[in-house]
What does this fold into?
Amino acid sequence: MINSPYVEDADAEWYRGNLHTHTEHSPDSTRPVANVISDYEEREYDFLTLTDHDTFVDPADYQERTTMSLISGIEVTDNSTHVIALNINSAITPDPDRQTVLDAVAEDDGIAVLPHPNWGPEFEHYSQEKLAELNGYAGIEVYNGASERGQGSSLATDHWDRLLSNGHVVWGYANDDSHRQNDVEKAWTVVQTTEFTPTAIISALKTGRCYASTGVTIEEITVDSDTVSVQTTNAATIRLIADYGTVHRVVESATASFDVPGDLRPDVDPSYVRIECLGSGNRTAWTQPLFLDGRTE
It folds into this structure.
């Protein structure tokens, strides 16, 4: 049985947003909050989270200025590796023990995302061991736009596939991590929901009803018995990927249907599949994992 996080509902729509955004309230950004909000709105984003470093900016103070849905957030930064906290009510203390931070986010009914795992000269802001040790986070940034101009790698599907292959339920998100204007619209997360409300958006993020993208648009992700189908507007190549990042089938098209497990090599016993949609100029979209081993959490 294929366990998909996506819903097949005629009323469901896709909404694009950024979950990792900095303003003048962060020491490494000078952009006024109002300017940041208007920039994303002009680019036709649907939702936005302000995640300043260890500083809580209340979205209620700015919601009347925009048609976007503003989600509360913060980037816990000091004392250790960073943690993105979404849907919180106040600042989270940057305890050096990041498990304590994750527990605090959960107690506030928030969602924790571990950002830019491969940022830095060692390509290891988060080691694989630390990612496996921590619990209570919803997912990781599989792509971090601001890392394009820094040391390390923007891409973190290597960590993602190892976590998934070892039994973890971890969703993948893509974000700008914008600090300056030229960081904006590098990467985004698109949620699937039947309602355009902060509550519905958070629910979709928490349960994996979303996909990550740097420029490819997915219109449909459906599961019918043993068939997984993906329809995009601008992909040129679609790849079926399973445990440890193994590519099992490649289709040169904007749409593709895969038989699972029929399109997987017979010498493997996969626990999940995910789909990568590749477009021009390295543009990519990543679906969430579709689990084959019964796991849900």
In short: The first strand starts at residue 13 and ends at 18. The two ends are 16 Å apart (CA to CA). The mean pLDDT is 97. The helical segments are 33-42, 98-107, 128-133, 157-165, 198-207.
